[in-house]
Structure formats: structure tokens, C-alpha cells
Amino acid sequence: MASIDTKKDGIWESIKTIIYALLIAGIFRTLFFQPFWIPSGSMKETLLIGDFLFVNKMAYGYSRWSCPFGVCPITGRIFGSEPEAGDIVVFRHPGTGADYIKRVIGLPGDRVQMRDGVLFLNDEEVPQVPDGVFEETYERQGSMRQFPRCENAPVGQGGTCEKSRFIETLPNGVSYPVLNITDNSPGDNTPAFTVPEGHFFFMGDNRDNSLDSRAPRNVGGVGMVPFDHLIGRARHVVFSSAGTSMLFFWTWRSDRFFERLR
């Protein structure tokens, strides 16, 4: 029969194992890769609601926001490397503190403007080539159980929700799909924004369904995002589920497992 001391030793060893495991997981999450679920449709079709990915936190170096709750004792950014136009980035919203994921459109010093739904960078039109239609089922999606917005609305539940699809190509050659829902969205026509030094301009690929840098923070948008608020770069979808829980295996999107993002 085991002695009381032996039982105590066993309990203490179990506690230490749990503590070490949590420390290792915390270090891994802080320094290397952070898991991220896609909760909204602002980056369709590049990212779908229910996609799961790991964000590379080494890509742009580290700031206070690299740690949970912003507790890292870092001023500015260390080991910093600026993102490139077209990168898909998770960042901390400068106003609300929520984590957002969008695409880098404007770098420091760039002039960014939308005219009739077309992106202009430094007063030059960014080419958009029509590329068919993005289709999805009109049904509640994700944990928030929201219906998608459709260009062909109204659509009955279970029907086909459509959005016009275009391929947009930035001056550095990065191409990606963007979607259109309506021709009179508030974000289709904007002033010309000049991106300040040390800041970045972000937009969602689902242009008419994205709160991003086109709207200032005082009206519920994102505004310009400081460099030290960037958390990391997304490169691959690891797992994807169309259901409300990853345990519902019949809702898994196996065709998106380990899909590379562009």
C-alpha cells in the first residue's frame, strides 16, 4: 500500500507536469504560432466562416500585443519586419482590442482610395478582372448563426447565394479574389487616404461586408493600424468546419484542410 508521502509526491508531480505543459503552450503561442478561428465573412472567399489557422508570429517580430492581453513588456516592436502588400494579417484593433484578420492594402506613404468599387493605389487603378460568381448556400453560418449577404437577394433559406467575383492584382504582383454584393456600398467611394509612417491600411476581400481601414474608428471602423498592433501572418488554413462546432464531423470541409492562402 502506498504511503501518504508517496501519494503526495504523485499529486505534486502531476501538478508540475500540468504547469510545465501550460508554460510550454504559452511560450509556443507567444513566440511562434497563435491559433485563430474565422468568425465572420469579411475575408470570403479567401477565408470562410469556420476556417481554423495558425498565425505566424515570427513574421513581423514582436510587440506588447504578441502576448495575451497585451502583457508583453515591449515598447514598439523588436525583431520587426514590415508586411508586404497583399499579406493576410491578424492584428489587434486599435480601439476595441479585438483580434481582426484582413489583407494589407496600403503601406506607409501610400495613397489609398476606392472609386465606384475599384481600388486606386497612389492614384493608379488596381486591375480587377471578372472571374465568375462565388456561390454559397443561404443558411445560418458559424457560431454567430448569421445569414450571408447576397448580390441576388432575396434568397430563400437553402437557396444559392451569389456574389460577383473578381481577381485583383496589386502593383507587386499579388493576386487574390474579391467579392461584390452591391454597387452602392458606403465603402465603394472613399476619400483618398494617405497611410502615415508606421501604420498600415487593411481591407477585407468581401468588400461590401467588411469593417476595415476605409472607415475611421470613431464610426465603428478600423482606421489606420499601427505597426505594433500586428500579431502575425496567416499562410494556410489548417482545418475548416461549416458547423457550429469542430466536433460535428459531418460539417467538415475536407477540401480546405491545409489549403494555402493567397
TrEMBL record:
Please report the stretch or stretches of sequence annotated as the Peptidase S26 domain: 12-238
Q: Which residues are the active-site ones? A: S42, K102
Q: Where are the transmembrane segments?
A: 18-38
Q: What are the record keywords, sorted? A: Hydrolase, Membrane, Protease, Transmembrane, Transmembrane helix
UniProt entry tagged with the keyword Membrane: yes
EC annotation from Swiss-Prot or TrEMBL: 3.4.21.89
Bilayer topology reads: Single-pass type II membrane protein
Q: Which GO terms describe its biological process?
A: signal peptide processing
Entry keyword annotation includes Transmembrane helix: yes
Q: Which Pfam families match?
A: Peptidase_S26 (PF10502)
Looking up NCBIfam families in the UniProt record yields:
sigpep_I_bact
Q: What is this protein called?
A: Signal peptidase I
Q: Which organism is the protein's source? A: Rhabdonatronobacter sediminivivens
Record gene name:
lepB
